[in-house]
Write a structure and sequence with these properties.
The protein is α+β, with helices and mostly antiparallel strands. It contains 2 helices and 6 strands, in the order E-H-E-E-E-H-E-E. The chain has a 6-stranded antiparallel barrel.
Length: about 150
């Protein structure tokens, strides 16, 4: 069954979050970068937990740009980080529009589109920050949770 359920004022909470910015020239190597992040976590006697999270930010200012980050939760904090990584004990994003998408992975962008339409219809201001939690990434039967931060 394909569906997108939406709600308002949801909070995204992640703990022990390892993050890495992905530069545009690295987009083709996303799977390799995910593996490297998981290996980094394991090499520090920790375990990756939960689904992969993608964070996309549209920066403000005279030259707005899209920045993408991959986030991976671990079962503990990692004290010594390589320069490309950042770690947060708790990442809490409050007051988000939320969509729970179930359907083919190739159509998962519909969840973000539905939230943008909801924001337009209700005259809500969005911050330009979107978190996509890839709960299940099966080609035909994916589950993706999308959180769009409100201003």
């Amino acid at each position: 069954m394909h569906e997108i359920q939406v709600s308002e004022s949801k909070t995204l909470k992640l703990t022990n979050v390892l993050s890495r910015r992905i530069m545009p020239e690295e987009f083709a190597n996303i799977n390799l970068i995910v593996t490297q992040m998981e290996n980094f976590v394991r090499s520090h006697d920790a375990q990756p937990i939960g689904p992969l999270v993608q964070h996309v930010v549209m920066t403000k200012g005279p030259k707005p740009e899209v920045q993408m980050y991959l986030l991976r939760q671990a079962n503990q904090m990692i004290p010594r980080l390589d320069p490309q990584y950042h770690m947060d004990a708790v990442l809490r994003v409050k007051d988000c529009l939320y969509a729970h998408y179930m359907g083919p992975m190739s159509r998962s962008e519909l969840a973000s589109q539905k939230l943008n339409i909801l924001a337009f219809e209700q005259d809500l201001k969005l911050s330009g920050s979107v978190y996509s939690v890839f709960v299940s990434q099966d080609d035909d039967d994916s589950v993706v949770d999308v959180f769009m931060e409100k201003e």
